[in-house]
Structures
1.
Amino acid sequence: MHYLDAVTARDQSGKKYLVFASNNYLGLTFASEVRQAAAAAALQQGTGSTGSRLTTGGVGAATILEKELAQFKHAEAALIFNTGYMTNLGVLFALAKPTDVIFSDELNHASIIDGCRISKARIVIYKHGDSRDLEQKLQQWEQAAQTKHNAVPVCRFIVSDGVFSMDGDIAPLPELVRLKQQYQATLVLDDAHAVGVLGNDGSGTAAHYHLEGQVDVQVGTLSKSLAAEGGYVAGKKIIIDYLRNKSRPFIFSTFLSPADMAAALAALRLLRKDAPAYLQRLRENTEYVRRALTAAGLPVVPGTTPIVPVIVGAADLAVKLEQRLRQEGILLSAIRPPTVAPGSSRLRITVTAAHTQTQLQQLVAALGRAWLECM
Ligand SMILES: Cc1ncc(COP(=O)(O)O)c(C=O)c1O
């Protein structure tokens, strides 16, 4: 697929599509400031970083970007990794030890699941978004810690997506913050789908709940609203310094290119300068699609974020709908097991600030027709 602008793309046969499947929530991959910054960086500094950040790969803009990301996330410091996936791996692997315990939401992203696994910490899965279940599980550990001294975990972690990538719902952060305080746990929150989406300044889940400064470790990605590639973690300086020195995915991989750093920095600055305008467009577009599809009788999972799941049920039906929409020039994703539970296959629509009203109407009309034909 070859993008023509932020929301249209062409496939290899030359067929054009309207895209409702990207994570380019603010449409910044085609903002002229972002493209010019990336092009200038490549022309002036070359196309690759040539090494790990700790050797020759120290791209200048990375330090500036980290400083601005930390300010944006209301944190003391930040550290950039090569992808959001590697950030979760790198953070959990470095921070959680085999004697520790991680409490993880059952619908957390695969990169969190993999990070938990490689840490070798004990993993306790709590029901999705269910703080009562989490509390019960924390209590059980507390009781075990008081009775069985050998099994006492050294540290507890609570880890959750901020916005869940397949359901589009928002983590119950006030409860997670309360529980992490009550049980002396470290709270790790992955805001990959929340930055550029939640909060008055677009800085994510903590800002959405007015809980800035309350999350210990905030993970994010540069590959969604920030229009580039890469991931980052923001938190207290002592944690970030530790990760810089101990996190293997950070240490042992060639760093991102100057163009990636310049693009992400330009996108972040655009967002910080004009957050209300970007967020208003995104929220209006999201509301329109959610309302119109619901009014047309489609089973939209209720919510407020631009991840709009339409539950189909059977996997083959979801694929049939996806293909039918492709014929009409609409690109969206059929999500099936194992990504989601059996029987909950769905169409996952992502809305962006860059879609026009006409394009949103095209989606609603095409999906309505396809639904009547296939269901
Ligand atoms: C919640 C979440 N975390 C992390 C990632 C990984 O980010 P990246 O694509 O930058 O590796 C994703 C990617 O889709 C995600 O949805």
Note: The chain has two domains: 2-31+274-374, 49-256.
2.
Amino acid sequence: MTSAPDRTPTRRRVLPAGGNGSLWQARPSCGIFAFRGTRLRIVVEDPSEVLFPTDCGLSLLSALDGDGAPVLEGVSALDVGAGSGLYSVALLAAGAERVTALDINPASVAQTVANVTANGLDGSRLTCVTSALEEYTPGERFDLVITNPPHLPYDPSYARGDGLETALVARRGGRAVYDAVVDRVDRFLTPGGSLLMAHSSLADIPRTVAELGSRGYETETLEIFEMDIPLLAYAEHRETLQLRLKELRAAGRAEFDGSRFTVHALLFRRPGGAARP
Ligand SMILES: C[S@@+](CC[C@H](N)C(=O)[O-])C[C@H]1O[C@@H](n2cnc3c(N)ncnc32)[C@H](O)[C@@H]1O
């Protein structure tokens, strides 16, 4: 399986096979998780339109709760592909000064606002933007960009045309949103700022690390999580999806072992400026 892209010894967690949702604090349907001492709840009203957070998304928060995670108090953050608002809620609860939640899906933006409000957080610290990342021109730079991009390769046979597809599937072998983040992050981050990414081993981690590294970004792997490939939403297209993934693996662009893959909680620091601790 994938090795860490830097030299720091990295904690590896193996999540149980045969399910998803093991990182929720209670049953997944309750949507309860703890982050930096606060108990938070995420609700998704229409799971075919807005992704109910998976272990892949939760793994980044779990890593951010661990040793060596960056300070979040007082930061201004951009949540790219906010989905249910999982990261926006957690960041505001952890003391972020301002969070901008961006998603191409208007239902995600509405769900993010609802979850921020339902958790009793100050909505005046949240800005919501419905836009593709590729078309977004912010009027400011952020200390932190956080994202868990879609990571499954697109195939026309399983195109659903709904929000769940937008959340899970991407063109260019599942890399389209990763590429958009890598291409644009310099426009969004302050010098010395951090990009926090849940990076799937199905979407060519070495390429992201190499491209950002060539621009002077330092990479730190906070944790690696091994888990099942989330095929549930695509159960009837399992064979096609696995075929696409095997093609990517043969081309050196995906790493997985049977039904297991890894998600790397990556912290990239932009060079320059006075880096935050
Ligand atoms: C894997 S989901 C992550 C949702 C949430 N952050 C989480 O971890 O549970 C990816 C999100 O990215 C959004 N998205 C997909 N393509 C996008 C694009 N080009 N620009 C902005 N958002 C996009 C989807 O609508 C979806 O909400």
Note: The chain has eight helices and 13 strands.
3.
Amino acid sequence: MGESLIDKDIRKARTLPSRFYSETEEFERLKSVFTGWQFAAHQSELDINAILPLPHIEAINSESMVLVRGEETNCMSNVCTHRGMRLALEPCNKKSLRCRYHGRTFHLDGTIKHMPEFDQAIGFPSQDDHLVKFPLRQWLGMYFTAVEQENTIPWEMLEQRLGFLHPEAFVFDTALDRDHTIEANWMLYVDNYLEGFHIPFVHPELNQALDSSGYVTETFEGGVMQIGKAVEGDVKFDLPEGHPDEGQDIAAYYLWLFPNMMFNFYPWGLSLNIVVPVSTNQCRVLYRGYVKDQALAKEGAGSILDTVEDQDQWVIEAVQRGMVSRAYDRGRYSPTMEQGVHHFHRILYQAIQRSGR
Ligand code: FES
Ligand SMILES: [Fe+2]
């Protein structure tokens, strides 16, 4: 099985074999793609709580992390260096991190501050007693962290496209939080997200709000951008002079970052979906909302999110059942409508090959 599993030429390529969606061995192999960049939190969440544990990242890649705003902001291990207890259990604003097991205390920069009953310990504290720091990157007010920085994301290019929205000024709105469990493999959720092909068939209401003839898909290293055009009289972005899409009527930018993050930018703000793999036939999708303009949230392409979500879940759960059929293995891609899915399968396969699993 070489690099040619998914042909580079979409006109000839066949989709990922169904075992990738249905077999435990493949599910385990694919876990290796989750150690690269992951969304940690938006700046507005850190404004509320200086100590922010990141349970969603632990659910994704088994690494317990905590984001801490001290003199500088760091993403650190949330595991006590004494005997491995979890440090921060809830978001809070304490001035230090104190372990609830035996009282080891850390400064907000992760260095050890105090440990009871260790006066006689030799060579203590050492470098190993401080908390390990993980890579951290801030992009348009959003923090990203990684276990290892293995994937490249063209942050600057994406900033040119989306920076005009000033997402750093958006505000986290807990009323938009959702946590859905879906009886389908995480990749089916991504596959479905990466094509607008199904919109007229699965989402009649959304279809009315979008001009499907103007739906554009762009692929780049580490992700896919889909652009939804607005219909006459609809809410659309006010694009500044010199913007790459100047002059177009755009209702939404749908940005997917490999492997599991979806940033849906609407004139009202940002709806973020994070897909958490659970098993071959189950995933969770976490939703978070960051609002720019509350009044606009009720209009346009971003206003029927819950309906669209139910429709998508219904269809991908049905596809999951198709993945175990003896009669189905691989399909083909529409060369005009499924460039995003094709790109995802290619970079996914390249990533597992790189990881040598
Ligand atoms: S495990 Fe944290 S102080 Fe013992
Ligand atoms: Fe959909």
Note: The radius of gyration is 22 Å.
4.
Amino acid sequence: MLKLPVYLDYNATTPCDPQVVETMLPYFTQHFGNAASRSHSLGLYAEAAVDLGREQLAKLIGAETQEVYFTSGATEANNLALKGAFESYAAKGNHIITAVTEHKAVLDTCLHLEKRGAVITYLPVNHEGLIDLAALEAAITPNTILISIMYANNETGVLQPIPAISAIARKHGVIFMSDATQAVGKLPVNVNTDGIDILACSAHKLYGPKGIGAIYLRRKSPRVKLTAQIDGGGHERGVRSGTLNVPAIAGFGKACELAGEFMPAESQRLATLRDQLQTALLRIPGTSVNGSITQRLPNVTNISFEQVEGEALMMAADKSIALSSGSACTSASRAPSYVLKAMGLSDELARGSIRFSLGRFTTAEEIDYTITTITAAVQKLRQLSPFYPSSI
Ligand SMILES: Cc1ncc(COP(=O)(O)O)c(C=O)c1O
């Protein structure tokens, strides 16, 4: 039996996998120790859970365990990376290169740094949502301390050419950071083959709990050094003070282990369901896909419906499908998506765009329901519209 609402907003957040919850539970009650309490067994038990979680995450991204530091999420990890690098590499320069389609956790941090004297280059993207590698290389100056380009875009799923970007960064001796929040757990991200020096990620995008994330910092060639943004007891080897959230770390670790196991089969399954959905929706006249369809996450498609308001479409779908017309953090503003606008969409078309993001618990039945419901809703809205030509 189909359970409503159908959830197709996995890029906003994912439910915890039941195995993740099971892993976490004992750390709230029985094994509640502080991972920094080395003087008794409760603390040591908690520390062992943190060590395991760190190992599980490190394995998923191809890192060494000592290169992984826990944070409250990817927003904090991005803030730490950008602000920490700006302070730590001040003697080298003050120039950071990023892209206009980054998440607000990067863009707003860059705005903050501009007020503190940073010079930021915001690379444009083409209509497929991709940056231009020649423009990236041309933007590098002797003052450039960091290149920050996301792995996968949250709204469109578009994948930037990460190994090519890191090769350019390395050639010029610039540290390369990637906000890989949407990629970790969905794709085989590997900090070494991808050439990433700093990586940000978050548990709640991969069936782990909310409020826990991590930052990866390369230890050798180059050794990345960031100035801590939270001072205190020196936890996480001084990179991020604060008592560790042991249950969340245990859950994050389990989520990473499961993601590694499920990834090959799951990405195939999701790509098939996503393609079925996309093909069916593109049969509706006046529709198009936003972003590259070859360089894209397997679970996402972002579709524009001409002459239809995304918000109205979601209402017309009777709230029986949980969808998003942009990223969760900006959808409250009702402004057209800056990501889609940067790709050349008009305000109107950007407003008529919907992100469909599938995940581990999405079924074929749910996709069929979505196709029928959205197709009917678009037709209904267009019939009501005095502007929509019957010829389209
Ligand atoms: C690409 C990207 N970066 C950063 C974040 C922020 O992550 P968190 O919710 O863990 O702070 C998100 C989540 O929306 C995201 O999609």
Note: The pocket of pyridoxal-5'-phosphate is lined by residues 73-75, 103, 105, 150, 154, 179, 181-182, 202, 213, 328-329 (CB under 6 Å).
